[in-house]
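[SOLVED] Need 3D model of a three-part complex

Original post:
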Amino acid sequence: MEFAGAPVEGVGEGGAAGDVLDKIFNNIMKSNSIFTNRDALRNDYIPDRILFRDDEIAQLGQMLAPILRGNKPSNIFLYGKTGTGKTVVAKYVMRKLGERISQLKLNTKFIYVNARLASTQYKVLVELGSQLDISIPFTGLSLSEASSRIFDKLRRDGVNVVLIFDEIDYIVKNYDDNVLYELTRANNELLGGNFVSIVGISNDLKFKEYLDPRVLSSLSEEEIVFPPYTVDELEAILRDRVKMAFRPGVVSEAALKLCASLAAAEHGDARRAVDLLRVAGELAEREGSEEVSPDHVTRASKSIERDRTYEVVRSLPLHAKLILAAALSVPDETNTGRLYSNYALMAKRLGIEPLTQRRISGILSELDVLGIINAPVVSSGRFGRSKRIRLAVPRDAVARALREDELISSIL
DNA sequence: ATTCCACAGGAACGAGCGGGGT
DNA sequence: ACCCCGCTCGTTCCTGTGGAAT
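Solution:
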């Protein structure tokens, strides 16, 4: 995993395998590793000091402060594109507030749930339950049974809850807002004097449209919008992290600037900037280089994309892979109809019954969301409307992942 | 101004899985 | 033992539609 796709210097130059290993191990063991604290670059790292988000932190703190007096705070919504600091700010405030709460011995709990990981209504309840020490089997119960177990326990113990609901748009888009409705309703009907407050976090502003108006009005009593970081801000953030993570002087100014500008091009995504820095650092270290150069950053950028593509494609279900195999066999772009007949042919050649075109159309939309293909709907007037389909990632990375599948590799 | 292609994408439904509570 | 549950992945049937051609 660590070494996926990264050729090790010196392999295949006639040296014994032992030499290669020695070199790798020596690089790792060298006391003067270029890193001093690699964890500061992990994407779940929460620094003690968060730059350029003072206002947001203050606002959120203000909104949640009533907790300290045992009052119910408003439900809050945090909006902003990926990598604009929503999650860090929420977790940071949660940590600080948590310290006060335990000092004051209040019976209030913070719960953090990520809807991308708990991606169904039921899984959300299971996750909620597990953080509250309520056992809910991972399948079998009805939704109402599961939620009443939770609310019963909360009422019995007199616990207040602040639920931080990250990437909340995931459940709402795929299901409906039942769970949210239940949770917002909880205060009025299900809990005596206790409260459940929700801090919802979403990358997608349009997601409001999916919400039932009743849920929307009670869920979004307060809002904080997170603007994207500018290049200058990204640079400052990176400089801060570099100080924590690397030995002084290891990361060149040019490399840092390149990380910032690459991430700024992606709507000011700080997480991407930090990822880039980390992978570039690992690349440099693996090569025994004393410096992280712009070249390392460029290569890191490519390797991140390739690795991601490879992982995503590899874990796709069979028919999605077949579609990609069909897509690989055309040089540039196709549309749904042509790709479908191509796919159906390949499937039959493998002795697999092809799925319907309706289903394939759906899978194409899913692949579009995953970023593996680009599939906008275009109209060719008299010649109908269809998706214009082209690969959005390097062909060789797709091909490499597909060849891993025994069935599919037999037809290239 | 109409027509009409080649689909898009919603809705309803069902099989199959991995499990409940009583 | 019984009938229950949520969820995924698929089908069938369906109505809707941008814009070149007429």
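Edit: The beta strands of chain A are 76-79, 108-114, 160-166, 196-202, 222-225, 334-335, 373-374, 377-379, 385-391.
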